[in-house]
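Support request from a user on the community tier.

User writes: "When I paste my structure tokens into the form, the page sometimes reloads and wipes my input. The last time it worked, I copied everything first. Here is what I submitted, just in case something in the input itself triggers the reload:"
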């Protein structure tokens, strides 16, 4: 078997109305189409990706995301072009998103370029671009070995 991408990711928002307003701008900006918009669910699909938010159970209303606790660490959307990351950054600034870091190169994969930001509940989100095959390129080193499973030295 070989998977064909990630079908969907759902997160629970501590403040559903604020999250709905945020994602209602962000997801269509990225080319996703709204397919569900109810009193407790907002869900968009596009680019072989589904992303949605749910309202919390009553006892969790108002809670915020805590990166590093059990569960989601962050969610990263893949951009098709490096310039898309820059365009996303400009959009995020325009809508008042909390930016963790602006567009920058990182060493996570060859050519890795990303912007990191948070939604209204503090959930970490990223938009990145990795050219070519990224970590799957022949000879790419990851964690003491190569992407093909062989080890250094």
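"...and here is what came back when it finally went through:"
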């Amino acid at each position: 078997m070989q998977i064909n991408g990630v079908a969907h990711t759902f997160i629970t928002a501590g403040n559903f109305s604020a999250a709905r307003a945020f994602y209602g701008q962000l997801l269509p900006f990225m080319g996703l189409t709204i397919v569900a918009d109810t009193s407790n669910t907002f869900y968009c699909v596009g680019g072989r990706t589904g992303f949605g938010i749910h309202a919390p159970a009553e006892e969790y209303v108002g809670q915020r995301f805590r990166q590093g606790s059990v569960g989601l660490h962050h969610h990263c959307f893949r951009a098709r072009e490096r310039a898309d990351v820059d365009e996303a950054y400009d959009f995020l600034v325009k809508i008042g998103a909390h930016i963790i870091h602006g567009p920058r190169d990182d060493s996570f994969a060859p050519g890795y370029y990303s912007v990191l930001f948070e939604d209204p509940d503090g959930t970490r989100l990223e938009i990145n671009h990795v050219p070519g095959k990224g970590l799957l390129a022949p000879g790419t080193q990851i964690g003491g070995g190569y992407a093909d499973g062989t080890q250094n030295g």
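Agent notes: The reload is a front-end session timeout and is unrelated to the input. Residues 136 and 147 are 6 Å apart (CA to CA). Residues 9-56+73-134 form a domain with the 2,3-Dihydroxybiphenyl 1,2-Dioxygenase; domain 1 fold (CATH 3.10.180.10). Escalated to web team.
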